[in-house]
Each structure stands twice: as structure tokens, then as C-alpha cells.
Amino acid sequence: MLASFLAIPVMLVLSVLQMTAVSRIVLLNGTADLVLLAVAAWGVRERGRNVFIWAFIGGLLISFTTSMPLFTPIVPYMFIALFARLFQNRLWQAPILSLIAVVFIGTLFQHIFNIIILQLNGVNIGLLESLQKVTLPSLLLNFFFLFPIYVLISDLGKWAYPEDNYE
Amino acid sequence: MKSVSPQTLRTAVVIFLVIGILLLALSGFLRPILGVFMDPFISAQRWLSERFMGVYDFFTLPRDVTDLLQKNAALENEVSSLQSQVIQLQEQLREADVLYSLLDYARSRPQDKYIASAVIGRDPSPFLHYIIIDHGSDDGIQHGMPVVTQQGLVGKVDAVTASAARIQLLTDPGSVVNVRLQNKTADAQVKGSVTGEVTLEMLSQNIDLTSGEILLTSGLGGNYPGDVIVGQILEIIKTENQLFQTAIVQPVVDFTALRAVLVITNFNTININPLIPTAAP
């Protein structure tokens, strides 16, 4: 229960950081997505069953700030949460490897989903150009921020579930 | 003649000897002899002094070091505080420079009313080019209002809350601005893209376009006021088999370094959609 409520301040801080600082760190045209990383990092944890609440809150906060069609950012985050739960401890029994796989597939899914949504809304956006100049650099930046976010989320998880430390 | 007494003579000899020794000592002739007697005394004095100072330092120096450490820490704190003040002042100076530039621009166009706003964020999606400013409907900002800087056109207000507004930049893939060439009677459109590249489109093939030409808003469509600088032609893409020629545009505004913008509040956007003819059912 505490971990579910924890999602609100964490996602709030991360989304504010995303808008004010991280979106200014640009590689070609790509930027990192802290909310995506936090959802993935929480989802690959053994006690991360409530990751869907994290994904929903994160997606909702991003929905209010982005100019993407309302509530559409929730869909990729929910998919990433699902993917993280599917990969949890099944990929070489190592959460960090699962996390890398989730972030890789999650970023690709999120960007392709966004491109399709924008095209459906009449925005002239090329798939190949977007993948080359936005998605691949975003992927690199996501990998760059992956480990600090993983450490942060792991510490938060230990704080939320202190009994895990004695397992 | 009265004879000199032996006592007087002895006294005189002693006086002469003392004067002689004094003269010899003052002239330095007695230094080696004095050294033999004085050196052990000086060495003993030095030894004693060093031991005494050692004992003295033992009792007094730790207190002095503590004092020095405290003073050093206080000075370091002061230096840090002053450094942060310097950084704050430099930041304020930079903001003041930006605001002065905006003020100059506002004075050059007295017919318009402006609200100066600071840029406080960017759209989290890398596909979209939007910024968030720190003024909203409480300050009189409404949807569709044009946004400029002292350099030229930035974009238009896309969404408004009570205390913030979202601005669609000229570089956004969904942005279309009607423009005209400064030195020719030709209208065209400027469109953004996902990479932030701005292109000039819908320009007739008959127009002899040259790189470096300035583009201004035409005012057509009623979304932007006329005669605001948009950018200049960077590279012309002219293919014979197309109806229109296109060109890459260099915007005058540096969108990566936007810190403050001016929202034109007395410009009323015109919705011309009802006037656009639609296909009969």
C-alpha cells in the first residue's frame, strides 16, 4: 500500500525533472524518459506487482503536461509495466538484464506508438526519420540514465519493503 | 713637585685598561675571545628557549589551531556564500539582459501589448516542440495568442492553465505559419518537423528564390500578426517536376536557448474554418 502511494511523489518529482531538466538534455533530437525508466525499474523488482499503479500515475502526470492527445501516454507506460512483470527474474535471473531488455523494448514501443498516434492526428511525421533521429538517441540516453534510476528505485523499494533486506 | 701616589697611578692604569678593552671590544678585536666565553652561554640559552617554546606550544597551539580551523571554516563558508551570490547575480544579469532586449523589441512595436514570461519547461515528448511558460489565464493569456522574442516569431499559445501556458514552437511538426518574402510579393508556408528543421513550402516555381532572403509573417489565416521576422532562406530545394519549390529555413530564434518570451495579448486570432468551403454532401 505504501509503495503504491509512494508512486505519487516519485512520479511527480520525476515528471517535473523530465520537463525542466531532462528534456533539455538532447542527443540529436532524442531525450531520456525518466518516468519510463522508473516504471521499468520498479516493475522488474520482485515486489513490484503494483507497477501498474506507478505506470498509470506516471502516464497521467505526463498526459497533463504533454501536447500528445490526452491520456495516450498512459498506454505505453502500462505496456512497459506489463513487459517488466513478464521479464521479472525470467531473463537470466538478473533484474538489471531484465531492466535493460524492458527499457529497450519499451522505448521502441513507446516511440512507435507515439508516431502512430501523431500520424493519426494529422501531424506530418516520418517513421524512418523519427526512428533514426529521435528513437535511437533516446534509447542511448535512456541507457545512460538507467543505472542511476535503478539505484534510486532499488533504495526506495528497500525503504518501502524493509523485510526484503533480510531475505 | 708633588709625587703621584701609587693608588692614583693604579687607578689611572685600571681606567686606561678598561678604556682600552672597551675600545678593542667596540672595534671587534675581542670577538674571538668573547665568542669563547659567550657561545656556551648562547647555546644554553637557545636550548632552554627551544624547550620552553615547545612546552608553551604544547599548551597553547592546539587552541590556536582550533581557532584557525574555525576561522578557516567561517571564511570558506563566506567564500561559498559569495560565490553563490556571484552566480545568482550573473544569472540575474543574464535575465536582465534578456528582459532589456525584449523591452527594446516591445518599444519598437508600440501598437502591440505584451506579457513577458519565463520559459519553465519543455514538452516531455521528444517528437513535439512545445515550451511551458510561467504565465497563464490569470495574467490574460488566451489560446492562440502569438509569442515572439526580440529576435522574431516563436510560435503561439496552444493550451492555458491559470498560472502557466504551453506554447507550440515554430519548429513543431504540427506548426504551419503563413509567410511572405521580404523583397518579393510571394506568399508561402513555413512548416516545422520532428527534427526541428523548418522548411518553406507552397512557394510558386516562378519565384526566383535566393538564399539569405528574409521571411516575415504574412498575417494570412489570422493566426499571427503580419511583419514579424520568422527566419531566412538557408538552402533552396527546387525540383522541376513539382508544383511548388521548397527551401530549408534558418529560424531567427534560437529555440534551444529560449529563456524568456513575449506573448502578444492584444492580437485576436481569427477562426476562418467556417469560411473554408467543404464538399457538398
Weakly predicted, low-confidence segments of chain A: none
- Please work out how many helical segments of chain A DSSP would assign: 6
Total number of beta strands of chain A? 0
Interface with most residues: A-B, 33 and 23 residues
| Count of structural domains of chain A | 1
Largest sheet, strands/sense/barrel of chain B: 6 strands, antiparallel, barrel
Main beta sheet strand tally, sense and closure of chain A? none
CATH class of chain A: Mainly Alpha
Query: Spans of chain B with pLDDT under 50 lasting ≥5 residues?
Result: none
Shape assignment of chain B: rod-shaped
Q: Assembly type of the shown chains? A: heterodimer
- Percent helix range of chain B: 25-40%
Element-by-element helix/strand order of chain B: HHEEEEEEEEEEEE
The average pLDDT of chain B is 85
Report on the structure:
The complex is a heterodimer of chains A (167) and B (281). Chain A is mostly helical. Chain A has a single domain, classed as Arp2/3 complex 21 kDa subunit ARPC3 (Orthogonal Bundle). Chain A is built from six helices and no strands. Chain A has helices spanning 2-20, 34-43, 51-65, 74-87, 95-120, 127-160. In chain A, helix 1 (2-20) packs parallel to helix 3 (51-65) and helix 2 runs parallel beside helix 4 (74-87). Chain A is globular. With 281 residues, chain B is of the alpha+beta class. Helix content of chain B is 35%, strand content 26%. Chain B contains two helices and twelve strands. Chain B has a six-stranded antiparallel β-barrel with strand order 1-2-5-4-3-12. A six-stranded antiparallel barrel of chain B has the order 6-7-8-11-10-9. The mean pLDDT of chain B is 85. The A-B interface holds A 15, 18-20, 23-24, 26, 28-31, 33, 35, 62, 65-68, 73, 111, 114-115, 118, 122-126, 129-130, 133-134, 138 and B 120-128, 130, 132, 158-159, 166, 168, 173-174, 191, 193-196, 256.
